[in-house]
Write a structure and sequence with these properties.
- The structure is a single chain.
- Helix 4 links the parallel strand 5 and strand 6.
- The protein is globular, with a radius of gyration of 17 Å.
- The protein has one domain: Alpha-Beta Barrel (TIM Barrel), CATH 3.20.20.
- The strands form two sheets. Strands 1, 3, 4, 5, 6, 7, 8 and 9 form an eight-stranded mixed sheet that branches. A two-stranded parallel sheet has the order 2-10.
- It has ten helices and ten strands.
- Helix content is 32%, strand content 17%.
- It is an alpha/beta fold.
- Bound molecules: zinc ion (ZN) (2 copies).
- One zinc ion binds next to loops.
């Protein structure tokens, strides 16, 4: 079977109508595409909701708090796609502090919490479950960003159970599964996350983590893992735009 046919079969089983993890030129690296460029591609890919989640200010070259404050004035509809404006926050210390103040966060639609080097130094032996748990207390935090990265280890079982209690959802990040991924142990850890989520009935968010328009809505490296884990389609948030709106209180 050709890759295209396989991909379209997966798209029937796990329709992706939403992508909430994307970056424009404003994130300062990886692309010169604007939000309009990304939205046009999202429309062509059949997305109903597109979320722009620029890196928080701790990422070198990304935008400052004032940019996020201004997003309340940005267009909510582009090329017939509904736009949401969030942030991919950096957790900046092991106490779970993040790089935007609550006052700015409250003006956004959602936040994804992530750990990136060099903001935190990779340490394969330091468990960061408690750090993520503390970071989940911030308002608007709804998603755990690429927790598959073995450079920043967590206890998946414990973290995912806490996330379920707090109404926070893990993402499965297509970028972590790409053949040239720079994160560590993506496939193995995403498999673990999916199996636990299946067991505890915790929905997951599929994310392209597209820098620019190139990979918007593209989950091609995630599909084989969903298949392998026999992951229930009803636990894929991307297929249920109304459920995402409910989670985000929109
Ligand atoms: Zn990230
Ligand atoms: Zn990202």
């Amino acid at each position: 079977m050709s890759t295209t046919v396989t991909s379209s079969l997966y798209q029937n089983l796990y329709p992706v109508l939403v992508d909430l993890h994307t970056h424009s030129i404003s994130s300062g690296h990886g692309s010169t595409d604007t939000i309009n460029d990304i939205a046009r591609t999202a429309a062509n890919a059949g997305l109903q909701i597109l979320g722009i989640s620029e890196h928080g200010p701790a990422t070198s070259g990304s935008v400052k708090a004032s940019y996020f404050r201004s997003l309340k004035l940005a267009n909510r509809k582009r090329f017939h796609v509904s736009l949401l404006y969030g942030v991919e926050l950096n957790i900046i210390n092991t106490s779970g502090d993040v790089d935007l103040e609550d006052e700015v966060l409250s003006s956004l639609d959602y936040a994804i919490i992530s750990i990136h080097p060099p903001t935190l130094t990779p340490n394969f032996y330091h468990d960061l479950t408690d750090t993520y748990t503390l970071a989940m207390n911030h308002p608007k935090v709804k998603f755990l960003g690429h927790i598959d990265d073995a450079r920043f280890p967590v206890n998946f079982e414990r973290l995912l159970n806490v996330a379920k209690e707090k109404g926070v959802y893990p993402e499965i990040n297509n970028g972590s599964l790409m053949p040239d991924a720079y994160r560590v142990n993506g496939p193995e850890n995403c498999r673990k996350i999916l199996n636990i989520c299946k067991e505890i009935e915790l929905p997951v968010l599929l994310s392209s983590d597209s820098h620019g328009k190139k990979n918007v809505g593209n989950m091609q490296y995630i599909y084989p893992l969903l298949d392998e884990c026999n992951f229930p389609p009803h636990l894929i948030l991307n297929s249920y735009p109304e459920e995402i709106q409910r989670i985000l209180s929109l």
